[in-house]
Specification:
The structure is a homotetramer of 285-residue chains.
Chain A: E1 4-12, H1 17-27, E2 31-40, E3 45-53, H2 64-73, E4 79-84, E5 91-95, H3 100-110, E6 121-123, H4 129-134, E7 139-141, H5 149-163, E8 167-170, H6 179-184, E9 189-193, H7 205-212, E10 216-223, E11 233-240, H8 247-270, E12 274-277, E13 280-283
Parallel strand pairs in A: 5-6, 5-8, 6-7, 8-9
Antiparallel strand pairs in A: 1-3, 1-4, 2-3, 9-10, 10-11, 12-13
Helix pairs in contact in A: 3-8
């Protein structure tokens, strides 16, 4: 297991930011492994991701955040997050009835592609319990009705706390989460929408794509915000389709795109390569 | 130059259609070069493209349409078009100020990729006249204002008739054509829209794409109908973009996609590979 | 379950072939569902795939092959195969230690994407037995050494016969099959090679790709012939890579391409959409 | 016109490199606009590209290289190049008979996509002179035979010196350059090869691709070295093909890929985004 620190930073652009941050790492004997920075000139905003080896680093791990803030962050109006790679993140999956994304994520986890824990799968249906059992992952059935929604979200919130969840992946979870729930997990709920957003928002996008006669269909992974299908986009991909493809074919082809795009978002999240800002994301990869 | 006939057919689906059409060609000593058919089961609609060599074909060229209608087409409620490859189609280009699509089409024409005549370029601005001159193609300046629009469209209509135009390509022509004008050229005006429709309809799609933070940008070629950006889609493509790309980069990258997608539509049109039906297209390729 | 017949035909090109085949189907009250034909002008060769509904077809199912041969096939020197969709094909998977393709195929089978039986998984290692067990599919461990190879292939041949195998998929099976074995399963063994053939044949293609500094890596599914990595190609795909990607990243990215390309080949095989000819394939899709 | 400095650096990896380079820029009042660095752990090699604004920079432009070397570069065994954006690079095009890449580059130059001078087009044939004339660019006819090759390369070398050429683009130039000539322009000759290297090296790659029955065709832009088709790869792309595509179709489709891939390489070269190392390239984009 690696022992790295990763800092994700954004702040108003100003001269000398890169020099100061790199010097902070260097003076304290951290070896920089990756550094990527970006300036949005239009917005006058600076973005940076820096990863360094903690072996021999002079500042104790639990003080890094504090020192960085005091020495650099606060003075420059920085917004920063510190991540340590020696702690495996805990990812909870929400599913409904469609199995393809769930299977795909579990398979990638099983083959070592995702370096994380999956403490539980939560579903509003019982259908996919057998898959959870095949992969020896606890399955929680939390049925939702219009009437019980608020109560069930509370129950889910408690469960997530018990599970020590770091973030949530909606692997074709077909319930709309309340604004309150979304607000508790800012940039920590990843959804897969089965269209190339902003085209075909909402329900039944493959039907709409068929109707419109598009020549490519797509999928979009994004962070969930209170605005349905409007959160910051993490990844997108498309596949060509033709008149040969009926709606069922679009669904079949689309499943593959969904799996790929969701897996990419999860990978980026686990490697702390995503820096959301406003309604956009900087992807450091 | 080839001497082929191409029939594009659609009608209600019914048994025996392929057999009858192929027998019509075969009995009259036509050698079938390509045959492609498609059934839209949902709509119960049959679509076919058949291309055959006219050398030795028993029916005189100017009677084929008539014979086919009498012997087969009318009995089955067919909607058909006959095309003869020995006549080079005449394509007229409409442009405004952006040169990339115009250059690209002229270059492809110049290198023999497009088997057609380009009798003229029509523009509401003078800026691109020098390109027309470089390629020795007549350039017609037809300025348009809100007040003169109807009059100028009439003038254009007369010009197109004189030019013997078969179809029109809007190579980033930034005027909206009137419903009347569109109605005169059904499935004979091809437009390039600089977004992946139906996302980002209307003006300034790259700005909208930037705002939304999409990870792919695209272009769409489509037939023009009275409904702006809503006509049948012919071809679409996308390219990945990232946070590195400012709006000017999106425009730069987008230009390439636009050129490619428009060129593809023109190629398909010239080879009679497009069969529009309702708001969709069957692409026989 | 559908009740269709599919004929795959190739023969020297000659006038009237499409008309005769379609008439054969039509006169016997078969409704043509799909028809695709292709002529390789260079080789003077005709290729066709025709699918029709057997409900109400006048010729008994077990006589179709015979009648077609007598009435049409033999007279034109045709090479043809008849497939009936009401019989589910039996696909046997060969694996070694890498799990990603196996998982992917089983998941697609489990979600209904592949309409076939998987009577067994055969492996020269024990490592992936647990996956077979998770999916309730019999697992046969057939270890191979240089000394036992011939004997084990015989054992495998008997096993395949008992299983009623129609075709074999090498889902990252790392043994080279003998010429004799290959010859018994012409166009019935599908392999996935982890490079964009013909680049990087043989072992360790990701290492070679890294060394050469390519900007795209790929995968190729192909029929297995006695010539290693030289059989007819069924499907290929690529993904972009960059200097950020070390060999392990190429492997990770490559796994996704492999899964996709192998799944596509299996899908095409199950739908009888592949017509191999010489060292090439016609893909009717 | 921008007034930036760009440093491309590589050297053995060691702690503190990023900090020192950024501090060099920062202390001398340069505002860092872009910074990208990469470490090849296998090779233990550090790579960096840094771009900063020269307005207000304390070190005079003609001393930057010297100061950087003395203060940082030499001490760390760095290999570096300094580029200044206020000087427009001079790109000379070599062509033979195929016009598509030439047209494409000139069109991009004409629409402002390439920020450079094109002082001349050099060709071993007269065929494309008319295109040079259309774009008002001097055309030099330098015929080559086996016997005159050495002499003509000398003549070309003198011409290039007179033209003040910074780099050369072989836009489908069909002569093999001598080792001597290549050695004079290290990483300053860009070629487009019409295949996905290392597949189909050498002549007639589309014929070979057709023979092998590949499902994708590609193009590769690379720096030219004495080893034909073996130089460091800059960019690659592919397009799908099928059995519908005869060799002429492969050529037609391939032309588009060639244009795109060559234009990408030129763009990267002009922006100083390519850092070659050994037989690979780091692309900072």
């Amino acid at each position: 297991m690696s022992n790295h620190a990763i800092l994700l930073i954004h702040c108003p652009d100003q001269p000398g930011l890169v020099a100061q941050v790199t010097e902070f790492v260097h003076k304290n004997r951290g070896n920089i492994l990756n550094l990527d920075q970006h300036v949005d000139r239009l917005a006058g905003r600076f973005f940076m991701r820096i990863e360094w080896d903690l072996d021999g680093f002079l500042i104790p791990v639990d003080k890094i955040d504090d020192y960085f803030g005091t020495l650099i962050g606060q003075a420059h109006g920085m917004n920063w997050q510190l991540h340590l790679t020696r702690r495996r993140p805990r990812m909870v999956l929400f599913v409904s009835k469609a199995s393809h994304c769930l299977y795909d994520l579990l398979q990638r986890h099983g083959t070592g592609e995702f370096d994380c824990e999956i403490p539980a799968i939560i579903s509003n249906h019982e259908q996919l319990r057998y898959i959870a059992e095949r992969f020896d992952i606890p399955f929680h059935y939390v049925p939702v009705t219009q009437a019980t929604k608020a109560e069930q979200e509370q129950r889910t919130t408690i469960l997530l706390r018990e599970l020590g969840a770091d973030f949530i992946v909606l692997a074709r979870y077909m319930q709309i989460l309340s604004d309150d729930f979304c607000a508790q997990w800012p940039h920590r709920i990843i959804n897969i929408h089965h269209s190339f957003l902003p085209a075909f928002k909402g329900a039944r996008p493959y039907h709409s794509a068929f109707e419109r006669g598009v020549k490519l269909i797509g999928a979009t992974s994004h962070y969930v915000t209170a605005d349905l299908d409007e959160g910051p986009i993490i990844a997108q991909a498309v596949e060509p389709v033709s008149h040969h493809d009926a709606i069922d074919d679009l669904k079949r082809i689309g499943k593959d795109v969904e799996k790929r795009v969701l897996a990419r978002a999860v990978y980026l999240q686990l490697r702390h390569l995503i820096l959301p800002y406003g309604n956009r994301t900087i992807i450091f990869s």
